[in-house]
Amino acid sequence: MGELGILPNHTPLLTGIAPGPVRLQFEDGEDDVFFASGGFLEIQPGVVTVLADTALHADDIDEAAAQGAKEQAQRDIAEHAADFDYSRAMSQLAEATARERTLAELRKRRR
User: Is the CB of residue 61 less than 8 Å from the CB of residue 53?
Assistant: First the structure.
């Protein structure tokens, strides 16, 4: 539920990651932002691996679609019917919100 920085010679680690932005910073100082739908982060000597069901470059995220999905999930939660799947709606809301956070991170990096 926060940020994790990986520096050279980091201790091996396996941890879960929540949906949201993943920022990669390269040796030359350049960086890039991606959206990961959640998954795992594995750190081994000399290798960092992100395992995610979905990963998108932040430039490829459709902002209008993310906003629409967030609004639809919020409506579904507010107006749920008898056959309503609350956990699915909350998952959709979390992913849409994470996509928006990823776009915000990309904008912040480009300033």
Answer: no
Q: In whole angstroms, what is the distance from residue 53 CA to residue 51 CA?
A: 7
Q: Which domain range does residue 92 map to?
A: 60-110
Specify if 2 maps to a domain.
Answer: no
Number of domains in the chain: 2
Residues 72 and 103 in one domain: yes
pTM: 0.72
Closest CA to 65 of 92, 96, 90: 96
> Collapsing DSSP states into helix, strand and coil, what is residue 34?
strand
The domain spanning residue 99 has which CATH number? 1.20.5
Q: Tell me: the pLDDT tens digits for 6-43?
A: 888 889 999 999 888 998 888 888 888 999 988 999 99
The torsion angles phi and psi of 59, rounded to 5 degrees, stand at -65, -20
In a domain, residue 17? The reply is yes
- Calculate the CA dihedral of residues 56, 60, 64, 68 and round it to 10 degrees: -20
CA distance 43 to 13: 5
